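Job type: complex structure
Entries:
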Amino acid sequence: MIVLKERFVMYFRCTFPPATPALEFAAVMPVISLTVNGNPVTVDVEARALLSRVLRDQLDLTGTHVGCDTSQCGACVVHVDGKPVKSCTMLAVQADGENITTIEGLAKDGKLHPMQEAFRENHGLQCGFCTPGMIMTAVALADENPELDEMSVRKGLEGNLCRCTGYQNIIHAVLDGAKAMRS
Amino acid sequence: MYDFTYHRPETLADAEKMFADADDGQYIAGGQTMVPVMKQRLAMPSDIIDLERISDLKGISRDGNVLSIGAMTTHAEVAGSGDVAKAIPALARLADDIGDPAVRNRGTLGGSIANNDPAADYPAALVGLGATIHTTSREIPADDFFTGLFETALEEGEVIVKVSIPVPDKAGYVKFPQPASRFALVGVFVAQIGDSVRVAATGAGPCVFRVEAMEKALEKDFSASALKGISVPGEGLNNDIHASADYRASLISTLARRAVAAAE
């Protein structure tokens, strides 16, 4: 086993680890079956493939964005069994048998989900890159908390970064969207 | 990240066998540290053994004055548990302030303490409460479990099954979160159990540690004012771009007083 402690120290000092030979690919590629936005899907994946990569590159669901790829920005948030998770920090093989919802799964019959509509109405975005993750986090937040207030929305969005416009209109959108989801 | 063979055992016995059979095996719990570490190529295990489907590792229960939490219980589950909120509200709040909601839905208590990040919250709680860590082969007091920077008393292949935590009379935890990561720049956990008081600081040094001078003062008088004038030397504490060692030392005193004031 590589001595993790030394590697961690290297990480914190931002030095690159020494070159190591690539391992051979695992002999058998895992096959996973999952439900994505209500549709059963079976797909061959590399064991090391991230859920975000499989959704985007193998299932063509490019609404799930990869922003930082380091678990911090939240652009890649999807629901796994109804709970928001960062799909860049979960292996696709770990989603085997799970029920996944992505941003593409929210609108029904050509009609935006109330939270999507609230982001549009409140101008809760500028460039829109963070929006899929913001909305997936917000939908779960509203589902779990019947009485949302501004502070609970701010705390609930701690794992989602917007780098253009600040958060004021996003907060307005989440509060409005939560209200619309209840009615 | 480098490729590996993935295993998803359903029993602890299978997990241990898979680990023993692997060239360079690695257990994965919630993966909120392990996946980023592999992405950075800081680790390149030949086999990943996922503990998620092992039901023996999950769940929260209370038996008299002991709260037990399975190793694969997520932070969100601890934060949302009625048993935890009733027995040790400070622990429920601690779990609710780890990372962000998405991280809390994947990250686990067992994963956090096995990793022993110097700025993680759970080590402060387990040392502060005098918890016991139960593994596949033995029981380890929290005081002996956290041994250094990212180091624990765990042996190769040993798996954390659960932790058992004595329910305190009062406990409080206050952290100064690093604004970007939400890890503790410093966090202090204070607990009173009978005549005994424990004070544990995380984020300040290479590994969680107890502050005995504060414990003695609080055993005589469990109040924030009892801590007046007690400080921890900055020597040996973490010193980085986020905070100097002296600032961290100062935070220990401030946060300990706040933790005592918040204790319930």
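Summary: The two ends of chain B are 45 Å apart (CA to CA). Residues 136 and 159 of chain B are 5 Å apart (CA to CA).
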